[in-house]
Every structure is written in structure tokens, then in C-alpha cells.
């Protein structure tokens, strides 16, 4: 690399890990002359800074070259595969099995731009889209799906989980919030995937009132305590969504295609895991 580095660039240790996972050049034809490390550095710069394609700094490769690689790797699942390999390496480094036995599901509504297409839902906060995620018990991403914001969680969750049949042989349990109670979501997961779904909510969720003798003094702090209360397991997926929000390109949904937004999410999570793996 013959230029000054950006904070988003891969270090030597990080590139040594990712180089073995990056796709090789296609056989035959003219030998590949594009520096794949610089392609990935440009993608990381765009993801971290939220820069527009056509204002990519001239120190990088031409934006059209970087875009061509992103489109190809998005369509053939390269970033998904590299992300999966990194996640399994991180779990093994933590002393865990490569695949999880439990996971947490949740969704996040994000604001979109005018290019959001069919994913848009108009509301009081403007145009919205929804990111649906499944994470393991350490917060590492297992699956992501970007879809229209007007699709309820118990329906979007089925679309998120359906492609995972057979991919996580050890998975037995999914924790979810009350948004997944309806339309037999838990029954569908059990029948189609063989996993149990446990709804995590406060004991007072849905409470409208209590029966009590006339003139009785009711201690509402015991029945429905005030203030913020952390729910078991749910905070893990919320933390993952917070990690993603620190990447400026993910502060909104800027993409025309949902698959492009999903690719940027896999890139961000891959970067987070590379840093963990590169630590001594």
C-alpha cells in the first residue's frame, strides 16, 4: 500500500486473516491485477464514513471497480461466507463451539432515503425500513434480512429464519420479545426448524389493572416498578444493533436493493470480528 492509511484500513494482521478467505482470481484469461486488499479497504471506508460512491478519495481504486466487486460479492454470497468463517473463528477463540446452541431475534426500524423503493413505510418519523437480525449469545450476527417496515415481526421473522434450515445443527432455543407472539410464530419455528422459542418480557407486560378490595392501598412499585429494567438476553441483540448504528452508512438505509444493505451490514460485522481476531 503506497498511500497514507485511513483509520478504516485493514492492518497487516487483519489482512493476513482475511486474505485466506477472500475469493481467488477466476481461472483463465488475463491475470488479475486488482489489489483485493485495497478493494476491501475502500468498502470499509465507504461503510464507516458513509461517503458517496463518486466521491471516494482518489487514493483508492476507481469507485466503479470497487462497486463491481461489491455487486459481485453481494450476489454470489462472498461477504456472507467470509462473515460466517470469521464468526466461527471468533467463537472458537472464545472457547466456544463454532455454531451456537441459542440465539436472539429482533428487528430495528431505520429511516430511509427516497431510493428505498418498496421497503418504504410512511409514518410520523418519515420513510422507514426494517432490519431483522438473529444473533448468538455474544452478539455476533447469524442472519440479517432487510424488508418493508410494515411487515410485522412475527411475519418477518419467518422470512428471516426460513433459509437457516440445517445451517446451525446445535441451535435449540431462540429468545424473542412479545412482538413474536402472534400467528403461531413459535409453533412454526418448532415445526419447520425444530427450535424452541421463548418469549422474554417483563412480568407486568400487558397488565392493565389488578383486582383489589375496596379502599385497599396498592403498592404499584411492587406490581409495576417504574424506571428502566434490563431484560435477560434481549440486551444482547440491542447491543448488536447499537454497534451497527456507529457505521455511518448504516445510520439510514441508503440502498436501492435490500441485498446491498445486508451486504454493508455483513461488512461492518466482519470488520468488528477481524479486530477481535487480530488482538494478541
How is this structure best described in words?
- There is one protein chain.
- This protein is of the alpha/beta class.
- It is about 40% helix and about 15% strand.
- It contains nine helices and six strands, in the order ααααββββαβαβααα.
- α1 crosses α9, α2 crosses α3 and α5 packs parallel to α6.
- It is elongated and about 85 Å long.
- It starts with 11 loop residues before the first helix and ends with a helix.
- The model has no long low-confidence stretch (mean pLDDT about 90).
Topology at a glance:
Layout: H1 12-19, H2 36-49, H3 63-76, H4 78-93, E1 102-111, E2 121-123, E3 126-136, E4 141-148, H5 153-161, E5 173-176, H6 185-193, E6 196-199, H7 220-223, H8 234-245, H9 258-278
Parallel strand pairs: 1-5, 5-6
Antiparallel strand pairs: 1-3, 2-3, 3-4
Helix pairs in contact: 1-9, 2-3, 2-9, 4-9, 5-6
In terms of DSSP E residues, the strand content is 5-15%
Shape category: elongated
Give the count of helical stretches: 9
Structural class: alpha/beta
What is the share of helical residues?
Answer: 25-40%
* Assembly of the depicted chains: single chain
Mean pLDDT across the residues is 88
What is the number of strand segments?
A: 6
Poorly predicted ranges: none
What is the end-to-end distance? Answer: 23 Å
Largest sheet: 6 strands, mixed
The SSE order reads HHHHEEEEHEHEHHH
Radius of gyration: 22 Å
